[in-house]
Known about the structure:
The chain is α/β, with parallel strands linked by helices. It has 2 domains: about 1-150 and about 200-319, 4-Layer Sandwich (Metallo-beta-lactamase, Chain A), CATH 3.60.15.10; about 155-195, no CATH class. Helix content is about 25%, strand content about 30%. The chain contains 10 helices and 19 strands. Strands 6-5-4-3-2-1-18-19 form an 8-stranded mixed β-sheet. Helix 9 (about 250-260) packs parallel to helix 10 (about 285-290). It is globular, with a radius of gyration of 23 Å.
Amino acid sequence: MNILFLGTSSGVPTRSRNVTAIALKDSKGSGWSLIDCGEGTQHQLLRVKLSVNALRAIFITHLHGDHCYGLPGLLASAAMSGRTKPLQLVAPKAVLDWFKATVELTQLHFSFEIEMHEVEQLNTLDIQGISVHPVLLSHRAPSYAYVFIKKEIKSVLNIAKLKQDRVPQGQVWGQLKKGENVVINGQEYKASDYAFMSDQSRKIVIAGDNDTPELLTEACKDAAVLVHESTYTKDVAEKVGPAVGHSYAEQVGRFAESVKLPHLILTHFSPRYKPSGYSSPSVDDIALEAKAYYSGELFLAEDFAEYALDKMNKLTSLE
Length: 319
């Protein structure tokens, strides 16, 4: 699974960052899902190799405009491009009500079915072999994280034992891997002695706005990656106060360390933070603060940055 950021700013866009939108792509093929759809997301799509016709599902974390104002325009453009495949839309009821009203009042017509799911009523949704379930967070408006699990249980051969027992390679190994016992010159080789089932599942947690990372403790169990907002550094967060409902770098770093997350991607940065390399305040301040408390692999998202999570649950930045 690949994570491609289409917008990484909080509240309003900047010259280098659009508001929130994240694509979760298949490692191979063109299928993808979208998490949040801030204003201008369809413009961001013009700069990457993602087709609205291959979009399977949209997941909205909460009703604030920097996370959903791009939704009607994106889907209107999908219809105008000739899309016919059904689309899954998961969002809080308030977002779905707003979307339905916009469709009616602006006389929007779609060439495809939109299957809507109220996140408040959703337990689990399967999207092309990826299981998705929501987790309620803490924010000024009801906000959710989405947990994506791609299960891959595969038969794996014990190569060392096969070689030790001098089992002929080729077709015989293939039969054992399929679970078939094999008899050669009167000697039986049992599949159970040479093949075992390996769980190569991958788990990614993508959170909406949230001032209490600890709410994701259970969701992050066995997760390879957490994508979480870090709107501020601690000093700024203390100045703006807790009412804004956002997290800061130290807070998220401490949480990620406590649950032993191997990879953490921070995003949703306040526009007050300039790009990396500029004088303070910049996103370098956010990175330094998080690294002081988190020993895993830390990434600060940028618009159009893409990360690949392989079958060994190793996250790599794609240049």
